[in-house]
């Protein structure tokens, strides 16, 4: 495959995935309202799962072709890119956070993403635990932690479903600060799920095309699998999260944005188990270079900083909130430079 063709496929597949994300948010909102499970749950599970398809397909392919650092770079780099998206869009749509009460289930979603990322970092740094059925114990522990957290999120969302539904329905027009919510299509739950699945299929079909092109571009750039994975591939595979988050903010759904981006970070770590199954040269987390532990740590720092900035915005401390979010964005740039310095 020529470099030009690889670049064309890389961009075209990423664009197809991103374009479908706006429809996914639209029908996801219908599902949230019809089921009364709320924006957060739909964002953290359904939308996050769909927008994580590119990472899943790309990283399994990278594992099969023996490029574990490309897979790890994409996973941790995507988590960093998600927090950059969260910070930048929260600055732009700061008015939507004003007066938003961060719920317990939103904090739990954040905590789960932090926990599984921390576990991944520790297993990269320390050779902990035996292999179980040729799979590293790190991937298994991360999976168990994620599933327990996901169950708690579902139970909490279901228990407070009516309250979250009312929050989602509110037009939230206060002194002109919040835009009116776009009108939802009149669809049944079944119709919304079918259309959601249809647009999700676009992502599923396009995502595998990213993998081969990504490997080709990594060789052409001469930057190495790790740096390319963290920068190039991570940015492209985070396009669904970017487009979905913009669409959700424009529809006045900040909780769905939080669920999508933090939920995607949690799912990125869940993908480690799938990658480990397809990687046959040893435990995945022990087979990658320790630079990825730095990327994981930087992701943890960004998750803490961005959530802090959002909390300040929600408490009407807008100037300080914007400053914290801006600092998080600058930290992303510094993180990329530090990773490049270690892999150049």
Determine the strand fraction and express it as a percent band: under 5%
Q: In the CATH hierarchy, what is the class?
A: Mainly Alpha
Question: Biggest sheet, open or closed, and with what strands and sense?
Answer: 2 strands, antiparallel
- Total helical segments: 14
CATH architecture: Up-down Bundle
In short:
The protein is mainly α and 344 residues long. 80% of the residues lie in helices and 1% in strands. A hairpin with a 2-residue loop joins strand 1 (131-132) and strand 2.
What does this 3D model show about the protein?
This protein is mostly helical and 344 residues long. It has a single domain (3-343), classed as A middle domain of Talin 1 (Up-down Bundle). Helix content is 80%, strand content 1%. It has 14 helices and 2 strands. It has a two-stranded antiparallel ribbon. Helix 2 packs antiparallel against helix 7, helix 4 (68-92) runs parallel beside helix 11 and helix 11 (239-250) packs antiparallel against helix 12 (254-278). The chain is globular.
């Amino acid at each position: 495959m020529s470099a030009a063709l690889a670049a064309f496929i890389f961009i075209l597949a990423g664009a197809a995935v991103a374009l479908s994300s706006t429809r996914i948010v639209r029908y996801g909102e219908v599902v949230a309202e019809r089921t009364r499970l709320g924006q957060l749950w739909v964002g953290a599970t359904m939308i996050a799962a769909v927008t994580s398809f590119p990472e899943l397909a790309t990283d399994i392919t990278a594992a099969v072709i023996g490029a574990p650092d490309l897979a790890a770079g994409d996973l941790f780099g995507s988590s960093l890119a998600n927090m950059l998206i969260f910070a930048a869009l929260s600055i732009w749509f700061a008015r939507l956070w004003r007066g938003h009460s961060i719920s317990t289930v939103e904090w739990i979603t954040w905590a789960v993403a932090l926990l599984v990322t921390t576990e991944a970092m520790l297993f990269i740094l320390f050779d902990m635990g035996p292999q179980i059925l040729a799979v590293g114990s790190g991937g298994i522990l991360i999976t168990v932690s994620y599933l327990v957290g996901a169950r708690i999120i579902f139970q909490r969302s279901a228990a407070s479903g009516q309250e979250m539904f009312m929050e989602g329905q509110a037009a939230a027009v206060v002194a002109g600060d919040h835009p009116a919510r776009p009108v939802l299509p009149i669809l049944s739950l079944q119709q919304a799920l079918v259309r959601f699945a249809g647009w999700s299929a676009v992502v599923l079909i396009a995502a595998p095309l990213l993998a081969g092109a990504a490997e080709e571009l990594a060789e052409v750039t001469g930057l190495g699998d790790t740096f390319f994975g963290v920068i190039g591939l991570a940015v492209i595979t985070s396009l669904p999260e970017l487009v979905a988050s913009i669409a959700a903010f424009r529809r006045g759904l900040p909780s769905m944005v939080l669920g999508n981006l933090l939920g995607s970070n949690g799912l990125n770590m869940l993908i480690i188990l799938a990658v480990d199954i397809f990687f046959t040269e040893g435990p995945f987390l022990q087979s990658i270079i320790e630079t990825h532990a730095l990327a994981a740590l930087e992701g943890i720092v960004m998750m803490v900083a961005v959530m802090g900035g959002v909390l300040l915005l929600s408490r009407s401390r807008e100037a300080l909130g914007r400053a914290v979010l801006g600092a998080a964005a600058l930290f992303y740039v510094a993180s990329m430079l530090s990773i490049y310095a270690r892999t150049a």
